Recover the amino acids of this structure.
């Protein structure tokens, strides 16, 4: 009988969550390196360079890859010859590990969990509770797989029940473009096939813990039906030309993972869950000998790629920005932002709406006139940082507030990640504003451009408060110009045709 000590399990969970906050798995970052080498789209290649550079910076600086440090998901396999020593339940031990990891003073992680899930949605402040799955298995060890799943990718999860004779590949190819780019491609698709509705979703989620081996399948050829299916989906999805960050390019996914389970003869439940560019996960064992030890990757395992701003990028003075200058920006153009940049996301926009509707107006020190707003919820700073990792959040969540902000506050532009929907694009066109995109998955790199940060309003909202950042050469791409042209529409359309021509 193996005895697993409570403190060992707690420490192992805490250490593992810290580990995946700043270390990409080497298989993923090398897959991105291969994608970078073959990429021909300038916009996608620039995004891939930012992701690789950000990853190496995080590994060196022990700071989060992404500001959304995720909801913790734990897959726990308990050997039936194990016993636990301690006064906490297994779930409480795991949650204590989560709490210690996310409150670590040297690398505090962003708390994103809210409770209750509907209604007041109050932040739990320590990112507990985790989502935990248990399985009793033969043996005398405890195996724990941990993932930290960001909201941008999790929100793009899809599920369907197909007819057994339907084409799964066609469903994936039809469905994936509807997911937009908020899941921060290039990433990994996890697909669960079979069981029942909830089992298919669990299969998909667990498949994302697997090692990236698509390049090996391409090299030696598929060895079974599942590998054939993975390769077909991989090729068909990349042929869509969605590309890194949805701007158009050759690589949308670096791998496709599939788990299956027997199902009812009348059913074919299928779940699809993407993993983003952060793709945080790790597995470890406890055998009673002490806490798990995770070996750090070697920096030489990273591709020799370092992002630098293009000499063609235009510097923008945010402190003297005019509507006329905004109207001059073109889709796909790269800009370097300098000066004062305001922030705000879901909760701040909702509160702004309430203040405007009540007639109270904006807080006295908040003025959006001829300003840009950055959709971000940053990580708390440590040591001498002005702010912690501060990458963009998915912009479509703010679409319903866009007309209000552009028509009532004097705002003339927005910065976020991924595409905008039709309602937002129409409002941007109407007000001759612009939408700029920062790279999701490059949060630490972006934060280096932020030289100071202070809360202006709604401090009680924590990371969702309105900040004022002072930025120097913050890199962005014009994603929607003042005429309503969206690079997230034109880019993939252009590259899907180019890819088709390459295959002729």
């Amino acid at each position: 009988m193996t005895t697993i000590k409570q403190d060992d399990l707690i420490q192992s969970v805490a250490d593992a969550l810290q580990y995946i906050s700043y270390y990409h798995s080497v298989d993923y970052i090398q897959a991105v390196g291969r994608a970078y080498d073959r990429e021909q789209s300038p916009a996608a290649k620039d995004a891939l360079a930012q992701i690789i550079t950000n990853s190496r910076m995080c590994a060196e600086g022990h700071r989060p890859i992404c500001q959304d440090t995720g909801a913790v998901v734990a897959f726990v396999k308990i050997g039936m010859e194990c016993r636990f020593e301690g006064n906490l339940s297994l779930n409480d031990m795991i949650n204590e590990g989560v709490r210690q990891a996310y409150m670590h003073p040297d690398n505090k992680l962003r708390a994103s969990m809210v409770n209750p899930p509907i209604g007041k949605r109050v932040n739990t402040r320590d990112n507990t509770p985790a989502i935990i799955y248990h399985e009793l298995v033969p043996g005398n060890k405890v195996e724990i797989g941990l993932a930290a799943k960001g909201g941008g990718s999790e929100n793009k999860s899809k599920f369907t029940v197909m007819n057994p004779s339907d084409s799964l590949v066609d469903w994936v190819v039809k469905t994936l473009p509807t997911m937009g780019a908020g899941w921060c491609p290039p990433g990994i698709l996890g697909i669960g096939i079979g069981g029942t509705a909830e089992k298919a979703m669990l299969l998909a989620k667990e498949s994302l813990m697997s090692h990236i081996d698509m390049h090996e399948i391409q090299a030696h050829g598929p060895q079974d039906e599942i590998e054939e299916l993975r390769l077909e989906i991989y090729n068909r999805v990349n042929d869509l030309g969605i590309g890194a960050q949805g701007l158009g390019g050759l690589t949308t996914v670096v791998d496709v993972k599939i788990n299956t389970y027997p199902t009812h003869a009348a059913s074919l439940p299928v779940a699809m869950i993407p993993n983003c560019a952060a793709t945080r996960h790790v597995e470890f064992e406890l055998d009673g000998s002490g806490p798990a030890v995770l070996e750090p990757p070697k920096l030489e395992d990273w591709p020799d790629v370092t992002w630098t701003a293009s000499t063609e990028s235009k510097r923008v003075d945010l402190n003297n920005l005019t509507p006329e200058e905004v109207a001059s920006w073109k889709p796909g153009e790269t800009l370097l932002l300098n000066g004062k940049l305001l922030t705000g996301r879901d909760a701040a926009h909702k509160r702004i709406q309430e203040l405007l509707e009540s007639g109270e107006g904006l807080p006295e020190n908040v003025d959006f006139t001829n300003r840009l707003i950055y959709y971000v919820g940053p990580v708390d700073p440590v040591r001498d940082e002005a702010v912690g990792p501060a990458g963009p959040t998915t912009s479509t969540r703010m679409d319903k507030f866009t007309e209000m902000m552009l028509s009532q506050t004097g705002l003339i532009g927005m910065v976020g990640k991924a595409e905008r929907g039709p309602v937002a694009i129409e409002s941007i066109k109407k007000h001759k504003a612009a939408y700029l995109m920062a790279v999701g998955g490059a949060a630490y790199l972006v934060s280096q451009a932020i030289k100071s940060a202070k809360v202006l309003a709604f401090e009680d909202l924590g990371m969702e408060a309105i900040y004022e950042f002072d930025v120097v050469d913050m890199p962005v791409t014009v994603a929607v110009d003042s005429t309503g042209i969206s690079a997230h529409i034109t880019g993939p359309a252009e590259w899907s045709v180019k890819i088709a021509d390459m295959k002729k």
